[in-house]
Automatic annotation (TrEMBL):
<protein>
    <submittedName>
        <fullName>DinB family protein</fullName>
    </submittedName>
</protein>
<dbReference type="InterPro" id="IPR024775">
    <property type="entry name" value="DinB-like"/>
</dbReference>
<feature type="domain" description="DinB-like">
    <location>
        <begin position="19"/>
        <end position="142"/>
    </location>
</feature>
<dbReference type="Pfam" id="PF12867">
    <property type="entry name" value="DinB_2"/>
</dbReference>
<dbReference type="InterPro" id="IPR034660">
    <property type="entry name" value="DinB/YfiT-like"/>
</dbReference>
């Protein structure tokens, strides 16, 4: 998990600076009413971080993994990121990801293969790898060409 944590930390530090450099107009711009702005995409990544950090921690101690389902549409509406302060949203994204880095980095090796449930049982290691893939996908939507 150390390599995942290190990669996530590097991406987080790099993109914190890049995200902070995006103008407010560009960060909040919605091409269509039903499409997410860059700010809302980052908000979605915050929601994902919050749900996944719980999976990474609970999966280590629960003998029968509880189902931690992320209802994306409800979280999107409940958080209203489009109306939020951009600097706070960017900072929250950074802090949550750095916390995930620390959780993954100190996780005992024997817990990597324990399972957590996001609708299906997966190992914590698989969920961490999937979280990183998901993060890169959406950061590519915010800043095109960031990852191939």
């Amino acid at each position: 998990m150390t390599s995942i944590a290190n990669e996530l930390r590097s991406i987080t530090e790099e993109f914190f600076v890049k995200l902070d450099a995006i103008s407010e107009g560009d960060f909040s711009y919605k091409a269509l009413p039903n499409k997410w702005s860059k700010k809302e995409i980052l908000g979605h990544l915050i929601d994902s971080a919050q749900n996944n950090i719980r999976r990474f921690i609970c999966g280590q101690y629960e003998t029968t993994p509880s189902t931690i389902v992320y209802n994306q549409d409800f979280w999107f509406l409940a958080n209203g990121y489009q109306k939020g302060d951009s600097k706070e949203i960017i900072t929250l994204w950074k802090l949550l990801n750095l916390r995930i880095c620390d959780v993954l980095a100190i996780m005992p090796t024997e817990n990597h293969s324990k399972t957590s449930n996001n609708g299906s049982d997966h190992t914590i290691k698989w969920l961490a790898e999937d979280y990183l893939r998901h993060l890169k996908h959406h950061l590519n939507q915010i800043i095109a060409g960031s990852f191939n």
